[in-house]
């Protein structure tokens, strides 16, 4: 069995065990979505297990998506069951922002 087939089988088995508990749960992925490989993977994977996604990021960290998006965590905090918080991917940004500039751009609204 190839590594890819093994990995896919493990996901399938995990999904069969957990799918009922994950069905229709709402998850917010918050942070540097545009530059995060973790976010990209989860945006592809989580809906397969029945989760509804919300993406929360300032304009600079957003990416085009078919899922509900907002820049304000306050708008969705009471609507979600799970929050996934991402770190800022400093190494992937062309212009490194100072801590003060980041706080200004990410300020909760």
Please write out the topology:
Blueprint: H1 3-22, E1 26-30, H2 37-45, E2 52-56, E3 68-70, E4 82-85, H3 99-106
Describe the structure.
- This protein is α/β, with parallel strands linked by helices.
- The mean pLDDT is 79.
- It has a four-stranded parallel β-sheet, with no helix packed on it.
- The protein has one domain (23-106): Rossmann fold (3-Layer(aba) Sandwich), CATH 3.40.50.
- The chain contains three helices and four strands.
- β1 (26-30), α2 (37-45) and β2 (52-56) form a beta-alpha-beta unit.
List keywords for this structure.
34% helix; alpha/beta; globular; 16% strand; 3 helices
Residue fraction in strands: 15-25%
Return the string of H and E elements.
HEHEEEH
The residue ranges in which pLDDT falls below 50 over 5 or more consecutive positions are none
The number of helical segments is 3
Record the strand order, biggest sheet: 3-2-1-4
Radius of gyration, taken over Cα atoms and rounded to an integer in Å: 16 Å
- Span from first to last CA? 50 Å
**Tally of domains:** 1
Proportion in helices: 25-40%
CATH architecture: 3-Layer(aba) Sandwich
Total number of β-strand segments?
A: 4
What is the structure about, briefly put?
This protein is of the alpha/beta class and 109 residues long.
């Amino acid at each position: 069995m190839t590594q890819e087939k093994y990995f896919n089988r493990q996901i399938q088995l995990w999904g069969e065990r957990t799918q009922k508990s994950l069905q229709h749960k709402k998850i917010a992925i918050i942070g540097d979505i545009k530059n995060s490989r973790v976010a990209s993977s989860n945006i592809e994977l989580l809906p397969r297990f029945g989760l509804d996604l919300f993406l929360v990021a300032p304009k600079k960290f957003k990416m085009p998506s078919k899922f509900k998006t907002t820049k304000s965590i306050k708008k969705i905090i009471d609507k979600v069951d799970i929050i996934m918080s991402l770190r800022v991917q400093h190494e992937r940004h062309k212009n490194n922002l100072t801590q003060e500039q980041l706080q200004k751009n990410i300020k909760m609204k």
